[in-house]
Amino acid sequence: MNRILIIILILAFAGGASAQTPAKKPAAAPAKKAAVKTQPAKAAPVQVSTAAAAPKPDPAAAVLEKLKAWDAKLETLKADFTQEVNFKEAGLKQSIEGSLLYVKPNLLRIEHKKPARQVVVTDKNDIWIYKADDNQAVRTTWDAWRRTQDQNFSGILDFGNYASLSEKNIATVEGEKDGLIALTLTPRSGSGYILKLRLSAADYFPAEAELNVDGTVITTRLTSTEKNTAIDKGIFTFAPPKGVEVLELKN
Q: What is the value of pTM for the model shown?
C-alpha cells in the first residue's frame, strides 16, 4: 500500500523601506503603520482515491496452474509406488508395492509386487489385468476398469488430465513443508471426498495423493521417479502366456 506524504512549506519574508529625510526641514511626524491583516494559510486538499482495492491473488489457483504446466511438459514417467488403504471403520489396513511406466498420452503399465503379483497394461482404450498367481488374465475396457479404481488411484494417475481438477473441485493450499506443497481438493458437486495432493516445491510433481472417502483413507506415494526418459513402447503390448485363462469383460 502506497503512503502519500504531503509536506507544506510556508516561507515568510518581511521587508522594511528606509525613508529619506530632506535637509533643513524638521522631521515629519512618523506616519502610523497600517494594520496588515494576515489570512491563515489554507491546507492543501487531500486526494482520496475512489479506485477499488485490487483483489488478492488466489494461491491455490497459482499452484493449480503450475501443476497443469508440469503436466503439459510430462512426456514419460518411471516410478515406484507404495499404497496404503486404511479401512477405518473396520480397523483393517492393506499395503501394496509396485512400479509404473507411462508414455504420453495413453500408455500405462502398472506392476504389483506385493502382496500379490499383478500386471496392468493399457492404452486407455482396452486394458489387460494379469494375475500370475491365479494363472488368469482379464481383458476389459479402460473406462470400465477405471470406474472400479477411481478411489485407489484418484489424483495420482491423472497424467495429461490434471487441468480438469480445477474444473471439478474447489482448491485450497497450505504452505510448504519438507519440500512439499499440500493442495486440497473437494468436489464442487456430487459425492463428498477430500483429495490432498502433495506437490514437489521444485517442479510441482504430484509425489503423493491422499484420498479420504466413506471412512476409507487411501495414500499413494511415488518414489524413484524418472521423468521424460526413453521408454520402449513395446513394453505396453501384452500377450497372455500360454495356458493362462483369459476372461473378456466389456462392460
A: 0.70
State the alpha helices, DSSP H only, in the chain.
59-73, 142-153, 164-168
Domains in the chain: boundaries: 59-248
Cα gap 124→105, rounded to integer Å: 9
Q: Which CATH number fits domain 59-248: 3.30.300.10, 2.50.20.10, 2.102.10.10, 3.40.50.300?
A: 2.50.20.10
Q: What is the pLDDT along the chain (251 residues), one digit of tens a residue?
A: 333 222 222 222 223 333 333 444 444 555 554 454 555 555 555 555 555 666 777 888 899 899 889 888 999 999 999 999 999 888 999 999 999 999 998 999 999 999 999 999 999 899 999 999 999 999 999 888 777 765 555 556 677 777 777 788 899 998 888 899 999 999 888 778 899 999 999 999 999 999 998 889 999 999 999 999 999 999 999 999 999 999 998 76
Q: Which residue from 218, 222, 219, 200 is spatially nearest to 63, judged by alpha carbons?
A: 200
